[in-house]
Predict the structure.
Amino acid sequence: MTDSARTDYEFPQDFLWGTATASYQIEGAVHARGRGPSIWDTFSHTPGKVLLGQTGDIACDHFHRFGEDVRLMADLGLAAYRFSIAWPRVFPAKGEYLKSGFDFYKRLIESLQAHNIKPMATLYHWDLPQWLEDEGGWSNRDTVERYLEFADAAFEELGDGVVQWITHNEPWCASMLGYGMGQHAPGLTDWRRAYRAAHHLLLSHGRAVQHFRTLGLLADIGITLNLTPAYPATDSPEDQAAAHRQDTFSNRWFLNPVFKGQYPETFIDEVGRQIGGIDFIEPGDMDTIASPLDFLGINFYSRSVVRNNPNHSLLGVEQVKTDSPVTDMGWEVDSDALYHLLKRIQAEYTNLPLYITENGAAVADTVVDGKVDDPDRIAYVAEHLAAAHRFVAEGGNLKGYFLWSLLDNFEWALGYTKRFGIVYVDYETLERIPKSSYHWYKGVIANRGISIPAKLR
Ligand code: JJW
């Protein structure tokens, strides 16, 4: 950023500038202090599940190096930090509660507070204790009760320090990728179980919100959904219907229960046919799921462009490649889709405060002379901040932006091959090298906004 920095896009004084991470992706120390295995330990240690057989055993070793990482955050001028709490550190085995499993998070929170960084904690970011999966995991309704015990313990132990709670991260991924497509832990391909899992994730969210309200804590509580707007490849009615089905599957299946207390009507019959009947909704569930929230977290990375293809997938939808640039994930870069998504959430679902709880780009970064230059990541974030600013300038209730991610980390089934960090991690030495995007983001935070990137002028 130049020092002439009158920013073209200036955000409100109280806009929350953050970065985000998740426990299994950065912590490592999987055997430390009595931690039990999670479904991601099991999955990543199963040959063929994660690229190159990589695991989260060591990851960024954040568990031992969080002091250095918090210093990186403090130098950045961060207002908030989003992290997740590893459930198997506190409930390592059936019937075992290890209160000291919270000690790490207490020390992390104290360290954040010492640097005036607001802690935002995600309760569930995909690391289900393996003992719970052995009893059916999220497709077992009992897991909702176990989650409530975990949530209650976390509120009790960390309730003084956490400013914002997120019940779940991306329940679409946890259910559909984990139990339906088999690409994430627990690696099952059973759509019946996937839809049950989705329902129980949502139900556990609602139950946790209701319980949280009885505790009288000062903090806020919400949920984070990954939203991927679907666009038709052509304006043919068939492609438009395909885009609508895709949108229902990836977005509305979660948005509608949370904000309208019902699953999308046009789709529930179809899902029922696919999985042989919907038998998991009990009286009162939908009201519980729709318990009033304090905010909605949105993870946005890309849009999908689809065409109708009856022979393709359960939905009869085929993803189409476009001419637009893509990130190292192969995901199309389209920040207009973010703007339109925010407008749509506001028009169709809620006026609650919104937070972008994840946004960022995977780039094939390399170290040259001890430095990492990542202009593509800067361009991606700048473009998406410009889209976010347009929404805010029009009166949109967007309160913060959390860049995914602070550090390069374990990108699930893709292991360490995809780098999302603004800080490079050398996985041999665990050395951290702030990238040029780190220095750029520091300027954004200091100036509360961005100058228009040349390509957008
Ligand atoms: C979809 C792959 C079949 C993470 C997906 C795979 C199969 C058509 C980034 N968000 O690491 C979405 N991320 O932990 C949470 N978001 O389908 C945080 N979405 O397609 C980040 C992966 C993802 C995905 C990954």
The longest strand covers residues 118-124. Residues 22, 25, 170, 173, 177, 181, 183, 226, 299, 301, 358, 404, 411 surround JJW (CB under 6 Å). Residues 1-6 have pLDDT under 50 and may be disordered. The longest helix spans residues 191-215.
